[in-house]
Amino acid sequence: MKRLSTLTKGILKENPVLILVLGTCPSLAISTRTSNALGMGIAATLVLLGSNIAISALRNIIPDKVRIPCYILLIAGFVTLVEMIVEAYAYSLYEALGIYLPLIVVNCIILGRAEMYANRNGVLDSALDAIGMGLGFTLTLLVMASIREIFGSGTWFDMKIPLLSDNNISILTMAPGGFFIFGSLIALANKIMKGRAVKKTDFGCAACPSNAVCRIKEEKDGDIT
Predict the structure, then answer these.
(1) d(CA 7, CA 124)
(2) How far apart are CA 190 and CA 23, in angstroms?
(3) Cα torsion at 76, 86, 140, 155 (round to 10°)?
(4) Which residues neighbour 56 within 8 Å (Cβ) at sequence distance 6 or greater?
(5) What band does 202 get if pLDDT is binned at 50, 70 and 90?
């Protein structure tokens, strides 16, 4: 049951976009078309899965002081691999995603799960977490893109929808429309979860994974009280 919860929590309870509010930039930029949203979701999920597994497997080897640069290096490797695959087998998608495909390297969702979950759990649990978070990210992008494309362009996966294709709300395909849909979905998710989606976390020094390292340094420098 614990592993099932790990797999499903990313769909709504800890949805990376609507609840944790991560990955906002690609969510707004890519969600104008459903095909692009699906492609970005799958690409991000593959990177998240690979990086979570690698970081979890190497968590006891990577020195704590350089863990963030090591995480970024691993993530960049998987992003490069996925980018090359997309360019080779889905060139139209590669062109449509543009700069947002290589920018998966700095996606807060991937680095956040590496630091908060893969760094502290086993390989299998980290893989399940990656799949769940990737699924939540992909579904959110698809919902946003479906609303914006159907009502903004009158199409869905490039298929014309009668009536709506000639009577669309073009502002939904623009930045203001994206923010409106994004905010509405966040409000809906919060309403469904009744504001209890994520427990409050202590973000002070005591909760920081580097607290012990910082205290040792302060003791050596004579700054600790």
Answers:
(1) 11
(2) 18
(3) 150
(4) 118, 119, 121, 122, 123, 125, 126, 127
(5) very low
Query: Greatest CA span in the chain, whole angstroms?
Result: 73
The model carries a pTM of 0.83
Least Cα distance to 48 among 21, 30, 22, 25 occurs for: 22
Identify whether the C-beta of residue 137 lies closer than 8 Å to the C-beta of residue 109: yes
Query: Using CA atoms, how far apart are residues 20 and 89, in angstroms rounded to an integer?
Result: 32
**In this predicted model, what pLDDT tens digit does every residue of 4-13 receive, in sequence order?**
888 889 998 8
Cβ-in-10-Å burial (0-12, 13-18, 19+) of 65 comes to exposed
Q: Which residues neighbour 130 within 8 Å (Cβ) at sequence distance 6 or greater?
A: 45, 48, 49, 51, 52, 53, 113, 118
Domain layout of the chain by residue ranges: 2-198
